[in-house]
C-alpha cells in the first residue's frame, strides 16, 4: 500500500467516515490541514464540493458510479478488498493518519446506528493517546475525548459532561469547575457516578492518576 506522506506533515487531520454526518460537521474543515474520506465519508465530502486529500476504504457502501466519482475527485485514492482486510474503513484511515503523528486527529461520521462500529471507533481514542496524539470524536450531539493524566476544557455548546472508564478502574479522579466536583475519586466499569455533570466555570479541569477516562460532552 503506497501512501504519499504529506510534507510538511499535517498538524490536524480530520477523518470523515460513513456514519451520521450533518452539514454542521463541515465547519470543522477550517481548522484542518489534511482531510481523509473513509468509504462513504469521501462521498459526503465530494457531494459538498470538498476534495479529500485521501479517499480510502473498500467502498462497498457506495454504488459503482459513486466509487468512480470518488476516485476521480480525490487527490489520492486507495481501495481495499472488502473481504481481505483486517480493519474497518475508519481504522484504516485512522492508522494512516496516526503514522504521521499529527498534533490532533478529529473523527467525524464515526457514530450512528451501528453500535459495534461506534464502540470500536471510541476505542481508537485510547490508541491515539498511547501514541501521544490528541484525538476526538465529534457529531451533532457529542464531543468525545480521553485522558489518562490531565485535561482542561473550556465551556462547550453541550450542557452535559460525563465521565466513563475505558479501563477496568480509573483512580485519582479530581474535577475542578464542575457542578459536582470530585477529589481523588475512583470509577470502575459499570458505575454511572460520572454521568451528566455540568460546567460551572468557563474552564474545567479533569485530573486522573491512573487509568483511561472517557470525557463526553453531550446534548439531547
What features would you describe in this structure?
- By secondary structure, this protein is of the alpha/beta class.
- The mean pLDDT is 94.
- The protein is built from four helices and 13 strands.
- It is elongated, with a radius of gyration of 18 Å.
Give a brief rundown of this model.
The chain is an alpha/beta fold and 220 residues long.
Strand order of the largest sheet: 4-3-2-1-5-6-7-13-9
Sheet with most strands: 9 strands, mixed
Class by alpha and beta content: alpha/beta
Silhouette: elongated
Ranges with pLDDT <50 over ≥5 residues?
Answer: none
Share of residues in strands: 25-35%
Alpha-carbon Rg, integer: 18 Å
Enzyme class: transferase
InterPro entries: Thi_PPkinase, Thiamin_PyroPKinase_B1-bd, TPK, TPK_B1-bd_sf, TPK_catalytic, TPK_catalytic_sf
Keywords: ATP-binding, Kinase, Nucleotide-binding, Transferase
EC number: 2.7.6.2
Which secondary structure elements does this structure contain, and how are they paired or packed?
Layout: E1 12-16, E2 34-38, H1 40-47, E3 54-57, H2 64-73, E4 77-79, H3 89-99, E5 104-108, H4 115-130, E6 134-138, E7 142-147, E8 150-154, E9 160-165, E10 169-176, E11 182-188, E12 203-207, E13 213-218
Parallel strand pairs: 1-2, 1-5, 2-3, 3-4, 5-6
Antiparallel strand pairs: 6-7, 7-13, 8-12, 9-13, 10-11, 10-12
Task: Give short descriptive properties of this protein.
220 residues, alpha/beta, nine-stranded mixed β-sheet, four-stranded antiparallel β-sheet, 4 helices, 20% helix, Thiamine diphosphokinase, nucleotide-binding
Amino acid at each position: 500500500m503506497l501512501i504519499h506522506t504529506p510534507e510538511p506533515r499535517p498538524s490536524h487531520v480530520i477523518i470523515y467516515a460513513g456514519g451520521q454526518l450533518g452539514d454542521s460537521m463541515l465547519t470543522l474543515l477550517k481548522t484542518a490541514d489534511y482531510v481523509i474520506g473513509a468509504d462513504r465519508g469521501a462521498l459526503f465530502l465530494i457531494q459538498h464540493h470538498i476534495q479529500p486529500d485521501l479517499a480510502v476504504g473498500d467502498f462497498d457502501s457506495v454504488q459503482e458510479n459513486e466509487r468512480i466519482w470518488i476516485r476521480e475527485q480525490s487527490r489520492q485514492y486507495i481501495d481495499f478488498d472488502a473481504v481481505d482486510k483486517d480493519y474497518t474503513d475508519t481504522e484504516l484511515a485512522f492508522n494512516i493518519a496516526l503514522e504521521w503523528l499529527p498534533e490532533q486527529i478529529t473523527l467525524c461520521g464515526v457514530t450512528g446506528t451501528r453500535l459495534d462500529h461506534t464502540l470500536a471507533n471510541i476505542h481508537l481514542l485510547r490508541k491515539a493517546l498511547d501514541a501521544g496524539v490528541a484525538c476526538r470524536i465529534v457529531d451533532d450531539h457529542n464531543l468525545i475525548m480521553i485522558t489518562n493524566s490531565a485535561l482542561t476544557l473550556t465551556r462547550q455548546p453541550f450542557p452535559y459532561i460525563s465521565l466513563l472508564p475505558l479501563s477496568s478502574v480509573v483512580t485519582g479522579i479530581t474535577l475542578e469547575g464542575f457542578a459536582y466536583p470530585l477529589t481523588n475519586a475512583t470509577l470502575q466499569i459499570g458505575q454511572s457516578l460520572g454521568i451528566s455533570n455540568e460546567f460551572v466555570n468557563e474552564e474545567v479541569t479533569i485530573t486522573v492518576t491512573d487509568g483511561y477516562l472517557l470525557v463526553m460532552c453531550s446534548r439531547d
